[in-house]
Write a structure and sequence with these properties.
The chain contains four helices and nine strands. The protein has 152 residues and is of the alpha/beta class. The strands form two sheets. Strands 1-2-3-4-6-8-9 form a seven-stranded mixed sheet, with helices on both faces. A two-stranded parallel ribbon has the order 5-7. The longest helix is centred in the C-terminal third of the chain and has 14 residues.
Amino acid sequence: MTEKVPNPDGSPDPAKRRLPGTRAEYRVIPERRVVFVKFGKRVTEKEIAGYAASLRVDPLFDPKFSEIVDLRDVEELDLRGEQMMELADKIDLFSYDAKRAFVVSNSVQAHAARMHQILRIAKENISTFRSLEEAERWIEKMTLARPKRETT
């Protein structure tokens, strides 16, 4: 079960969720087809798996949505190579075609984002940015550039 996370003004926001006991906070915006997630100071495999478990049961989530991952507050990435592989191969819920933007403020965060990009074999679909605004613009541009499928 997810718990409600208040808006900055203190009012509950039912679209903002987190798994109790984790510092990952996320928001699904179905009308924009995007998920925003912000991680706290320490990121572990358990925390990322908890985020994925929350998304898995979230009725608003669609694996084809884009994702913006804000890592700027992360001070410690407690992930080993084999854990990163398991996260990319087995725990990650997003489709391989989903657009993913990582927002970073230092080289350690950027390295983690790059490792995820390599492990997901997602050269064009995953990118790293220094600001949330840049990430949002890229997601919007990439989403608009996606070819429309014909319906029969």
